[in-house]
């Protein structure tokens, strides 16, 4: 890491001490760009590496496949009427297609509103009122919940609902129907996007302490962790290389609507980590997934820490190294 100096013998005294000048690498500038477009360009550098795996079925997406599909899904969303500044609800359990939905919405200049699936219909209706979401992408297991929530709102509120998985009715297309859509370019500043002002994502709290509360994150804000990561790579390249090797395969247990689950997922996409999505948790499935995919990183709910601490002992005498990261409590499912 670069040292901090005061110049060649120059020391300027101020009331609170000396002024220090940084002589290390120059920090990267925060891009004034569409966040999803920047993520796609970064993900393309990981090529044919597997990005996401569904633990139960083994279905997977490589980074190249994600980069190819996001503009297509975004084109399908555009055909549904989603445009600059639109709000799109995303109600889903852990699912490998969430990444496609998240990036396709942002690529289109709209705002993704990821929601906790443990909310009831009335609580979800509150989120819909506050977020002003007019489109919805819903996991097949959550369709009835979403439909019930929209009954609390005027009939003209919902413009289109897409389903992740098997759609129950023809009027609700499957997300997979968008995979064959012609790709479109991202919305940029030329199209009216203002990266430091316009929201890319609007997560909501879990509702454990009252009505769910939302917060807006701009494209620029989402760029900051990525730029920080790049800067740290500049400062400590050897450590960065070692960290990438250590965190090569991660297990996603936390809901994607939870801030820590979301952060872990997008960080993995940025650095090139393979993320294994545990779609249905049981102790047996959890342990078998760790063994099958040789998981080396897990983020988990602190309330379950006692259970997870037995993991290294289960695989004794030939365990592999696992980094366990506790996170704050989340609403139980």
Please outline the helices and strands.
Elements: E1 4-5, E2 13-14, E3 17-18, E4 21-22, H1 35-44, E5 50-54, E6 60-62, H2 63-79, E7 87-91, H3 98-107, E8 111-115, H4 121-131, E9 135-139, H5 143-150, E10 160-164, E11 199-201, E12 217-218, H6 219-235, H7 237-246, E13 249-252, H8 259-271, E14 274-277, H9 283-293, E15 297-301, H10 305-308, H11 311-314, E16 323-327
Helix pairs in contact: 1-2, 1-3, 2-3, 4-5, 6-7
Widest beta sheet: strand line-up: 6-5-14-13-15-16
What is the H level of CATH, i.e. the homologous superfamily of the largest domain?
A: ANL, N-terminal domain
CATH class of the largest domain: Alpha Beta
Helix content: 25-40%
Count of separate DSSP helical elements: 11
* Principal-axes shape call: globular
| Integer-rounded radius of gyration | 22 Å
Q: What's the β-strand tally?
A: 16
User: Which residues sit in consecutive blocks of at least 5 with pLDDT less than 50?
Assistant: 1-14, 313-319, 328-333
Features:
333 residues, alpha/beta, Rossmann fold, four-stranded parallel beta sheet, 11 helices, 16 strands, 18% strand, globular, disordered C terminus
Descriptive notes:
- With 333 residues, the protein is an alpha/beta fold.
- It folds into two domains: 171 residues, Rossmann fold (3-Layer(aba) Sandwich), CATH 3.40.50.12780; 103 residues, 3-Layer(aba) Sandwich (Rossmann fold).
- It is built from eleven helices and 16 strands.
- The strands form five sheets. It has a six-stranded mixed beta sheet, with helices on both faces.
- α4 packs across α5.
- Keywords: Ligase, Peroxisome.
- One of its GO terms (cellular component) is peroxisome.
- It is found in: Peroxisome.
- This is AMP-dependent synthetase/ligase domain-containing protein.
- Belongs to the ATP-dependent AMP-binding enzyme family.
